[in-house]
Every structure is written in C-alpha cells, then in structure tokens.
Amino acid sequence: MTATDNVHPQEIHKFGSRAEHWWDPNGEFKTLHDVNPLRLRFIQQFAELPGKRLVDVGCGGGILTEGLAKAGADVLGIDLSEDLIDIADLHGLETGINAHYQKISAESLAEQQPAGFDHVTCMEMLEHVPDPASIIRACATLVKPGGMVFFSTLNRVPKAYLLAILAAEHILKMLPQGTHDYKTFIKPSELCQSARNAGLELQGMTGIEYNPFSKKFSLGKDIGVNYIAAFRRSE
Ligand code: SAH
C-alpha cells in the first residue's frame, strides 16, 4: 500500500461534508469539544508544550490543534479533507490562534520531515483509515527520538459497540449515525503492538469515560470504550 492509498475517500467525505458544523460546541462534533480539555490535560502530563514543534495528524477542523497552540506549541495540523483544512484555517484566523494547516497524508509528511517534530498527536483518526499501522509508523517517523506520540481511538470490545455506537449514535444521538464502524475499532493490545513495531514505547494509557447522567466526560481507568495513550520514541 502506498502513502496515498491509506485513506477511505468516503470517510474524508463524511467528515468534510460536515465541516461547517465543526466549531459548533453544541453541534455534531460536541463530543470532540467536550473531550478536548481532557486530552490536553493527558498530553501535558507527558509533554511540555511551550515552544515545541508538534504535528496533529487527522486534525479535522482543528479543535485539538488550537488547544495545543494555545498551550504554547508551534503546531501543524494535517488532514486529507480540503474542506476541514479550510475551516481550520479560517477558525484560526478568526480566533487569532497561530496554528498552521496542510492537506497532506501522515505518510507523505513523514517522508518529507522525518524526526521533524518534538511530539505528535493523532486523535480519533486511526479507526477511520484502512491501515492504522501505517499511520502509527508514520507518526513514529515524524517524531524526534525521545519525543512523545499520542493516540486516542475506540476499543473493539462489545461494550464499545453498545456505548459508542448503539447508545451514542442511536439512543442518545450524541454522534451522527454512521460515524463509527465497530470492526475498525482497535484493541489497546493491537495499538501497543503496532506502536512497539514502530519503535514506540508505551508510557501511559487512560480511559475517556462518559457519564450519561451528568453528561460529562472524565479520564479514568475504564479503557473499554474510548482511550488515549502516550508513547515515547526510543532514543
Ligand atoms: N483529530 C480530530 C478529528 C477527528 S475526526 C479531533 O479529534 O478533534 C477524524 C478525522 O480524520 C477527520 O478530520 C478525517 O478527515 C481525518 N482522516 C480520515 N482519514 C484520514 C487520512 N487517511 N489521513 C488524514 N486524515 C484522515
């Protein structure tokens, strides 16, 4: 598989066609807005951000990218959706946040800028590509030795089907129907194996839990649905 093949065009279209709703904190992407402070907090437990050069892989409209930039990082957001790159750029201009965006695949950027970044983030994206291991390898190539790589994704266990698809998409309607496909979810053991094969060592993993009564997300021990992990590239 070549770099440009590792994409499901229908996934890019699915997200890109909703680009104008990206920054509505109560809209279709509310979940990403709600979890953003938590993932930023997790990232900051492992990485210093001020003055560091980061790349945010599969950045969408830039929710995490802007958060990283606000925390003082020099961030490049990359995505294959032109519509989302445009929305991210525009939002950055409106808010005065200094992030940069480029439509390029992780694999191509890794060829151009190996070890070009202090840290790499890739959130809620691995479950939308044909070959997640290729993205993981690209992230490992993009980061400098000793730098951190962060991934978040959904666990392929029945509980994640019940909560992330049945409850979130069909019952609570927190996400548009069809956002996720259970068979693309990734078990933590699979993520760790692919990361290890790419020279990344696990430093920490935490669940992103949802409480349907308080309607709040929190970081916790339960990695049975959505989880976030920190890896260090070996020196
Ligand atoms: N990381 C962002 C957006 C997650 S939504 C956040 O968590 O806030 C998933 C994103 O992955 C979408 O923006 C989609 O366009 C992007 N994506 C899907 N396949 C991709 C690929 N092969 N290369 C780059 N981006 C991809």
Outline the structure in words.
This protein has 235 residues and is an alpha/beta fold. The protein has one domain: Vaccinia Virus protein VP39 (Rossmann fold, 3-Layer(aba) Sandwich), CATH 3.40.50. Helix 3 links the parallel strand 1 and strand 2. Helix 2 packs across helix 3, helix 5 runs parallel beside helix 6 and helix 6 crosses helix 8. The model has no long low-confidence stretch (mean pLDDT 96). It is built from eight helices and eight strands. It starts with 8 loop residues before the first helix and ends with a strand. It is 38% helix and 26% strand. It is globular, with a radius of gyration of 16 Å. The chain binds S-adenosyl-L-homocysteine. It catalyses: a 3-(all-trans-polyprenyl)benzene-1,2-diol + S-adenosyl-L-methionine = a 2-methoxy-6-(all-trans-polyprenyl)phenol + S-adenosyl-L-homocysteine + H(+); a 3-demethylubiquinol + S-adenosyl-L-methionine = a ubiquinol + S-adenosyl-L-homocysteine + H(+). Pathway: Cofactor biosynthesis; ubiquinone biosynthesis. Keywords: Methyltransferase, S-adenosyl-L-methionine, Transferase, Ubiquinone, Ubiquinone biosynthesis.
List keywords for this structure.
235 residues; alpha/beta; Rossmann fold; 8-stranded mixed β-sheet; 8 strands; 26% strand; globular; binds S-adenosyl-L-homocysteine; EC 2.1.1.222; methyltransferase; 2-polyprenyl-6-hydroxyphenol methylase activity
